[in-house]
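Reopening: structure tokens for the flavin mononucleotide complex, inputs below.
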Amino acid sequence: MTKILIVYDSRTGNTEKMALAVAEGVKKVKDAKAVVKAVDKAKLGDLTKADAIILGSPTYYGNMSGKMKSFIDKTYAVHGKLMGKVGGAFTSSGDTACGAETTLLSMLKAMLIHGMVVQGRYENKHYGPTAVESPNTKEIESCEELGERVARLAVALRK
Ligand SMILES: Cc1cc2nc3c(=O)[nH]c(=O)nc-3n(C[C@H](O)[C@H](O)[C@H](O)COP(=O)(O)O)c2cc1C
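Re-run output (same inputs, fresh job):
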């Protein structure tokens, strides 16, 4: 079974709703299993055991939250062990064009530095799903699409 780990931070629940929608997308893929963890509960061992890692954070001043950044900084202990895993990111922000894309890129940059495989998207939401506060139906669908797409790629790479 290909393991897709979804780690999220969420103070008021918006990013958490997105995380659960990403997991729903993973469920659509045969041979893939989603594991959802709040960042406080996530361990480095969860990352090394996963085939794909999807991170979600609220947009805080155009960046990921401090909790998510602290977690990423801890991954220094497993540097080199995340190479080749598939990555993805999502965020909820307070408004449009208020730092959501830079937040996604802040998480994706760390993944690239770890040697992870990040797939972009040509239609829209190029860097990953974003929502303004609580995700609406379309934003939920884009989260499901991310989960499904990352899971398909991870399953294919595992073969
Ligand atoms: C410390 C802090 C910084 C924030 N900075 C931004 C920001 O730069 N841009 C923005 O659009 N929203 C910003 N927001 C709003 C949150 O991104 C938004 O409310 C989000 O939906 C919260 O997600 P959550 O419910 O998962 O905690 C900020 C909120 C807080 C508490």
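The helical segments are 14-27, 44-49, 66-74, 100-113, 137-158. The longest strand covers residues 86-93. Marking as resolved unless the reporter disagrees.
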